[in-house]
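Review this fold:
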Amino acid sequence: MDSDFVRPAGHDFLWPHLLEVPYFRALLRAVEARFYQDLPIAPPVLDLGSGDGSFAAQAFARPLDVGLDPWPQPLRESRARRAHRLLVLAQGAGLPFADNSFNTIISNSVLEHIRDLDPVLAECHRVLREGGCLLFSAPSDHFTDWLIGRKLFGEPYARFFNRISRHHHCDGAQVWRARLARAGLDLERAWYYFSPRALRALELGHYLGLPNLLYKRLTGRWVPFPSRRNPCLRALEAWLRPIYDEPPPAVGAYIFCVARKPAPAPPQASPT
Protein backbone atom coordinates (compact mmCIF):
# COMPACT_ATOMS: atom_id res chain seq x y z
CA MET A 1 0.00 0.00 0.00
CA ASP A 2 1.12 3.57 -0.68
CA SER A 3 2.33 4.68 2.77
CA ASP A 4 0.81 8.13 2.28
CA PHE A 5 -2.67 6.62 2.76
CA VAL A 6 -1.90 4.74 5.99
CA ARG A 7 -2.97 6.03 9.39
CA PRO A 8 -0.35 5.73 12.16
CA ALA A 9 -0.03 2.31 13.80
CA GLY A 10 -2.58 1.88 16.55
CA HIS A 11 -4.87 4.58 15.18
CA ASP A 12 -8.34 4.38 16.75
CA PHE A 13 -11.08 4.47 14.12
CA LEU A 14 -14.00 4.01 16.52
CA TRP A 15 -14.09 7.34 18.36
CA PRO A 16 -13.79 9.54 15.25
CA HIS A 17 -16.68 7.70 13.61
CA LEU A 18 -18.83 7.91 16.76
CA LEU A 19 -18.39 11.68 16.75
CA GLU A 20 -19.73 11.92 13.21
CA VAL A 21 -22.30 9.21 12.36
CA PRO A 22 -24.92 7.04 14.16
CA TYR A 23 -23.35 4.40 16.36
CA PHE A 24 -24.22 1.35 14.24
CA ARG A 25 -22.73 2.94 11.16
CA ALA A 26 -19.73 4.07 13.23
CA LEU A 27 -19.03 0.53 14.40
CA LEU A 28 -19.25 -0.98 10.92
CA ARG A 29 -17.17 1.73 9.25
CA ALA A 30 -14.52 1.69 11.99
CA VAL A 31 -14.05 -2.07 11.56
CA GLU A 32 -13.80 -1.67 7.78
CA ALA A 33 -11.40 1.28 7.96
CA ARG A 34 -8.80 -0.91 9.68
CA PHE A 35 -8.75 -3.35 6.76
CA TYR A 36 -7.59 -0.71 4.29
CA GLN A 37 -4.44 -0.04 6.31
CA ASP A 38 -2.98 -3.35 5.10
CA LEU A 39 -4.39 -3.54 1.58
CA PRO A 40 -2.68 -2.97 -1.77
CA ILE A 41 -3.81 0.61 -2.49
CA ALA A 42 -1.86 2.45 -5.18
CA PRO A 43 -2.78 5.78 -6.73
CA PRO A 44 -4.61 6.95 -8.66
CA VAL A 45 -7.57 5.78 -6.57
CA LEU A 46 -11.28 5.91 -7.45
CA ASP A 47 -13.77 5.83 -4.56
CA LEU A 48 -16.86 4.33 -6.21
CA GLY A 49 -19.92 5.40 -4.24
CA SER A 50 -18.05 7.92 -2.10
CA GLY A 51 -21.19 9.34 -0.48
CA ASP A 52 -20.68 12.23 1.91
CA GLY A 53 -16.95 11.56 2.18
CA SER A 54 -17.03 10.71 5.87
CA PHE A 55 -15.58 7.22 5.42
CA ALA A 56 -12.70 8.30 3.18
CA ALA A 57 -11.90 11.18 5.52
CA GLN A 58 -11.61 8.83 8.49
CA ALA A 59 -10.04 5.78 6.83
CA PHE A 60 -7.20 7.41 4.88
CA ALA A 61 -4.42 9.76 5.88
CA ARG A 62 -4.60 11.77 2.66
CA PRO A 63 -7.28 12.55 0.07
CA LEU A 64 -8.15 9.92 -2.51
CA ASP A 65 -7.87 10.99 -6.12
CA VAL A 66 -11.53 10.79 -7.20
CA GLY A 67 -14.81 10.35 -5.35
CA LEU A 68 -17.81 9.38 -7.47
CA ASP A 69 -21.45 9.23 -6.41
CA PRO A 70 -24.82 9.34 -8.25
CA TRP A 71 -26.47 11.69 -5.71
CA PRO A 72 -25.82 15.47 -5.57
CA GLN A 73 -26.53 16.03 -1.87
CA PRO A 74 -23.85 13.66 -0.49
CA LEU A 75 -21.32 15.18 -2.88
CA ARG A 76 -22.18 18.66 -1.58
CA GLU A 77 -21.49 17.44 1.96
CA SER A 78 -18.31 15.72 0.81
CA ARG A 79 -16.75 18.94 -0.48
CA ALA A 80 -16.38 20.26 3.05
CA ARG A 81 -14.50 17.15 4.17
CA ARG A 82 -11.88 17.39 1.41
CA ALA A 83 -11.40 13.64 1.41
CA HIS A 84 -11.07 13.55 -2.41
CA ARG A 85 -9.09 15.67 -4.83
CA LEU A 86 -11.94 15.54 -7.35
CA LEU A 87 -15.65 14.81 -6.91
CA VAL A 88 -17.73 13.50 -9.82
CA LEU A 89 -21.51 13.09 -10.15
CA ALA A 90 -22.07 9.94 -12.24
CA GLN A 91 -23.48 6.42 -12.28
CA GLY A 92 -21.26 3.40 -11.76
CA ALA A 93 -22.52 1.83 -14.98
CA GLY A 94 -21.18 4.77 -16.98
CA LEU A 95 -17.89 5.89 -15.49
CA PRO A 96 -16.72 9.12 -17.19
CA PHE A 97 -13.08 8.09 -17.31
CA ALA A 98 -10.75 6.77 -19.98
CA ASP A 99 -9.68 3.14 -20.12
CA ASN A 100 -6.90 2.18 -17.70
CA SER A 101 -7.27 5.32 -15.57
CA PHE A 102 -6.86 3.90 -12.04
CA ASN A 103 -4.62 1.54 -10.14
CA THR A 104 -7.16 1.08 -7.34
CA ILE A 105 -10.94 1.24 -6.96
CA ILE A 106 -12.49 1.10 -3.51
CA SER A 107 -16.22 0.63 -3.02
CA ASN A 108 -17.13 0.40 0.64
CA SER A 109 -20.62 -0.98 1.35
CA VAL A 110 -21.94 0.26 -2.00
CA LEU A 111 -22.30 -2.63 -4.46
CA GLU A 112 -25.06 -4.33 -2.47
CA HIS A 113 -27.32 -1.34 -3.21
CA ILE A 114 -27.00 -1.66 -7.01
CA ARG A 115 -29.58 -3.96 -8.55
CA ASP A 116 -27.76 -4.64 -11.85
CA LEU A 117 -24.11 -5.16 -10.98
CA ASP A 118 -22.67 -6.59 -14.18
CA PRO A 119 -22.43 -3.24 -16.03
CA VAL A 120 -20.80 -1.62 -12.99
CA LEU A 121 -18.19 -4.35 -12.63
CA ALA A 122 -17.52 -4.24 -16.37
CA GLU A 123 -16.83 -0.51 -16.03
CA CYS A 124 -14.51 -1.17 -13.09
CA HIS A 125 -12.56 -3.59 -15.29
CA ARG A 126 -12.40 -1.02 -18.10
CA VAL A 127 -11.02 1.86 -16.01
CA LEU A 128 -8.61 -0.27 -13.97
CA ARG A 129 -5.05 -0.65 -15.17
CA GLU A 130 -3.61 -4.12 -15.61
CA GLY A 131 -2.75 -5.50 -12.20
CA GLY A 132 -5.00 -2.92 -10.51
CA CYS A 133 -7.26 -3.83 -7.60
CA LEU A 134 -10.95 -3.50 -6.80
CA LEU A 135 -11.44 -3.52 -3.02
CA PHE A 136 -14.99 -3.72 -1.70
CA SER A 137 -17.16 -4.74 1.21
CA ALA A 138 -20.77 -5.96 1.24
CA PRO A 139 -23.25 -7.91 3.37
CA SER A 140 -22.53 -11.62 3.18
CA ASP A 141 -24.70 -14.66 2.63
CA HIS A 142 -25.01 -14.81 6.44
CA PHE A 143 -26.25 -11.24 6.86
CA THR A 144 -29.65 -12.14 8.32
CA ASP A 145 -28.65 -15.32 10.16
CA TRP A 146 -28.34 -13.84 13.64
CA LEU A 147 -30.87 -11.01 13.58
CA ILE A 148 -32.97 -10.79 16.73
CA GLY A 149 -36.07 -10.10 14.67
CA ARG A 150 -35.49 -13.15 12.50
CA LYS A 151 -35.47 -15.40 15.55
CA LEU A 152 -38.77 -13.84 16.65
CA PHE A 153 -40.56 -13.38 13.34
CA GLY A 154 -38.77 -15.63 10.83
CA GLU A 155 -38.06 -14.99 7.16
CA PRO A 156 -40.54 -12.11 6.68
CA TYR A 157 -38.45 -10.06 9.11
CA ALA A 158 -35.22 -10.98 7.30
CA ARG A 159 -36.72 -9.75 4.02
CA PHE A 160 -37.98 -6.60 5.75
CA PHE A 161 -34.57 -5.84 7.23
CA ASN A 162 -32.85 -6.25 3.88
CA ARG A 163 -35.47 -4.00 2.32
CA ILE A 164 -34.99 -1.16 4.82
CA SER A 165 -31.23 -1.62 4.39
CA ARG A 166 -31.71 -1.30 0.59
CA HIS A 167 -29.85 -4.56 -0.07
CA HIS A 168 -30.14 -6.21 -3.46
CA HIS A 169 -27.19 -8.57 -2.90
CA CYS A 170 -26.07 -10.54 0.16
CA ASP A 171 -23.61 -13.08 -1.19
CA GLY A 172 -20.68 -15.31 -0.31
CA ALA A 173 -17.29 -15.56 -1.95
CA GLN A 174 -18.32 -18.07 -4.60
CA VAL A 175 -21.10 -15.87 -5.93
CA TRP A 176 -18.76 -12.89 -5.99
CA ARG A 177 -16.06 -14.93 -7.72
CA ALA A 178 -18.42 -15.84 -10.55
CA ARG A 179 -19.78 -12.30 -10.82
CA LEU A 180 -16.30 -10.79 -10.96
CA ALA A 181 -15.13 -13.38 -13.49
CA ARG A 182 -17.89 -12.30 -15.90
CA ALA A 183 -16.34 -8.83 -15.79
CA GLY A 184 -12.80 -10.14 -16.33
CA LEU A 185 -11.70 -9.68 -12.71
CA ASP A 186 -10.09 -12.30 -10.46
CA LEU A 187 -11.14 -12.65 -6.82
CA GLU A 188 -7.80 -12.99 -5.03
CA ARG A 189 -9.05 -13.23 -1.46
CA ALA A 190 -12.12 -12.69 0.64
CA TRP A 191 -12.89 -12.83 4.34
CA TYR A 192 -15.88 -12.58 6.60
CA TYR A 193 -16.19 -9.97 9.33
CA PHE A 194 -18.81 -8.76 11.81
CA SER A 195 -19.76 -11.38 14.39
CA PRO A 196 -23.31 -12.27 15.53
CA ARG A 197 -22.89 -9.86 18.44
CA ALA A 198 -21.80 -7.09 16.07
CA LEU A 199 -24.75 -7.75 13.76
CA ARG A 200 -27.22 -7.51 16.62
CA ALA A 201 -25.69 -4.19 17.69
CA LEU A 202 -26.11 -2.97 14.12
CA GLU A 203 -29.70 -4.24 13.99
CA LEU A 204 -30.69 -2.38 17.17
CA GLY A 205 -29.02 0.74 15.84
CA HIS A 206 -31.44 0.92 12.92
CA TYR A 207 -34.19 1.61 15.46
CA LEU A 208 -32.25 3.42 18.19
CA GLY A 209 -30.74 5.66 15.52
CA LEU A 210 -34.07 7.25 14.53
CA PRO A 211 -33.34 10.35 16.67
CA ASN A 212 -30.09 10.74 14.70
CA LEU A 213 -32.08 10.76 11.48
CA LEU A 214 -34.38 13.47 12.81
CA TYR A 215 -31.42 15.52 14.01
CA LYS A 216 -29.77 15.16 10.60
CA ARG A 217 -32.84 16.49 8.84
CA LEU A 218 -33.09 19.42 11.22
CA THR A 219 -29.42 20.41 11.44
CA GLY A 220 -27.50 18.63 8.67
CA ARG A 221 -25.47 16.67 11.26
CA TRP A 222 -26.00 13.17 12.58
CA VAL A 223 -24.68 13.48 16.14
CA PRO A 224 -25.76 16.02 18.77
CA PHE A 225 -22.92 17.24 21.02
CA PRO A 226 -20.09 15.39 19.22
CA SER A 227 -17.58 15.35 22.06
CA ARG A 228 -15.77 12.63 23.96
CA ARG A 229 -17.17 14.25 27.09
CA ASN A 230 -20.72 13.48 25.92
CA PRO A 231 -21.90 10.82 28.44
CA CYS A 232 -24.12 9.11 25.85
CA LEU A 233 -21.23 8.73 23.43
CA ARG A 234 -18.96 7.55 26.24
CA ALA A 235 -21.48 4.81 27.13
CA LEU A 236 -21.78 3.80 23.47
CA GLU A 237 -18.01 3.66 23.11
CA ALA A 238 -17.69 1.43 26.19
CA TRP A 239 -20.33 -0.94 24.78
CA LEU A 240 -18.91 -1.03 21.26
CA ARG A 241 -15.19 -1.14 22.04
CA PRO A 242 -15.05 -4.94 22.72
CA ILE A 243 -16.96 -5.55 19.48
CA TYR A 244 -14.64 -3.26 17.53
CA ASP A 245 -11.66 -5.17 18.95
CA GLU A 246 -12.96 -8.60 17.89
CA PRO A 247 -10.86 -10.44 15.29
CA PRO A 248 -12.71 -11.35 12.07
CA PRO A 249 -14.82 -14.47 12.71
CA ALA A 250 -14.70 -17.61 10.60
CA VAL A 251 -18.23 -16.75 9.40
CA GLY A 252 -19.58 -13.23 9.56
CA ALA A 253 -22.43 -10.97 8.51
CA TYR A 254 -20.24 -9.07 6.03
CA ILE A 255 -17.60 -10.00 3.48
CA PHE A 256 -14.56 -8.08 2.24
CA CYS A 257 -13.17 -8.87 -1.21
CA VAL A 258 -9.90 -8.12 -2.98
CA ALA A 259 -10.19 -8.50 -6.77
CA ARG A 260 -7.61 -7.79 -9.45
CA LYS A 261 -7.57 -7.04 -13.16
CA PRO A 262 -5.14 -9.63 -14.46
CA ALA A 263 -2.27 -8.70 -16.69
CA PRO A 264 -2.29 -10.52 -20.03
CA ALA A 265 -0.15 -13.61 -20.26
CA PRO A 266 3.22 -12.96 -21.89
CA PRO A 267 3.44 -14.27 -25.47
CA GLN A 268 5.02 -17.67 -25.75
CA ALA A 269 8.18 -17.93 -27.77
CA SER A 270 7.59 -19.59 -31.09
CA PRO A 271 9.42 -22.91 -31.54
CA THR A 272 12.63 -22.70 -33.53
